[in-house]
TrEMBL record, chain A:
The chain crosses the membrane at residues 59-77, 92-122, 129-149, 169-186, 193-210, 222-243. Keywords: Membrane, Transmembrane, Transmembrane helix. This is Uncharacterized protein. The keyword Membrane applies.
Amino acid sequence: MKTYRTLLRLYPADHPRDEMLDVLLTAGRPMRRELPALVLGGLRARLSDQDPSRVRWQAALRTAALMLLIAGAVAPLNDLYYGTQLRSNLTIATWIVAGLASVAVMIGYRLPALGLAVAALLLSGTDQISIPATSAFAVAAVFLLVPGPRRPVLHPLAILLPLAWAGDYHLPAGVQLALVVALALWTVVDERLLLATGLALSAGLIVATVEVAEIDDTRGLLILAAWRIGLPAALVAVAALLLRRRATV
Amino acid sequence: MTYVGFVREPTYFILAALQDGPGHGYAIMSRVAELSDQRISLATGTLYQALDRLTREAMIEVVREEIVNGRARRHYALTPSGRSALRAEAVRMSEAARVVLRPGLGTA
């Protein structure tokens, strides 16, 4: 009974915890049989699971914008690693503006975030710091055009994943794998982060169009297309399917 | 709310469990198992996720609350739209079954 009481604290205070405890004790099933659904139900109840599909898409777009702003801000660090000098005033200004835009998204202020994302885009375009950064800011700005309820975006994975993208080959494979596993596990509870990841990765399309111009072999082009188009499309499709399924009565 | 789509099987049986009158959580759970020939055995967490969703979708509603053994117990009942959704789903499944179970077809 004590374990059930503790687990039921996962549910919001306005949930019928007492009633659930009553059912759990009356049913008297083995705990291992009740445990997974109980934990999953509690986490989902805390994660605005009651939102309609439209609002969940809006939340995913907002999260994708945050991921892109972070990815754009840290993308030049990769070039820095290869010895490129990027510490111009414009670059520093871009980092600051993109950082402020990220904070604005995190605390739920869409319009200021949109303005700052556009500013970051203009700054990075002027500075020509990196194509991935510019494309990330551009797509983030587009996603921020979509209105929605004011909600903070505070998910550690939404911050860690774009940092891992920026880390690229320098990040240990184990860390990258751990993040992917964490994303997959989180999708069981809430599909929005997977949706956001797919949407954020679609910014790679802009980079791909530049890369395509430099590729003259078909196989390379196919690999590029599969990576830059196939992966984001697959993530979005799976997440959209889950979102639709979970919204079904 | 208008019924627009298919209902998942556990949800179908939860709605069916309430068609003869209101019931509380454990009663619904037991009735679902009985109606489905013990095929569907809902975990408490699953049952309450479904009850939450159905309440939000105005398919069911809380009609009574009581205190039993010092704990709150709510009784749920079908709303008119829940009843029509259940009926629409039953008709849909029955029509789908008829296609396969026509006399003289596939029963040899």
